[in-house]
Amino acid sequence: MFRNELFTPFASRGTTPAMAVWREAAELVSTRWAIFLEADAEARPWAFASYVAALDAEEAAAAETAKRMRAAA
Question: What secondary structure does DSSP assign to 2-70, as a single string?
Answer without folding.
Answer: -------TTTTTTTS-HHHHHHHHHHHHHHHHHHHHH--TTTHHHHHHHHHHHHHHHHHHHHHHHHHHH
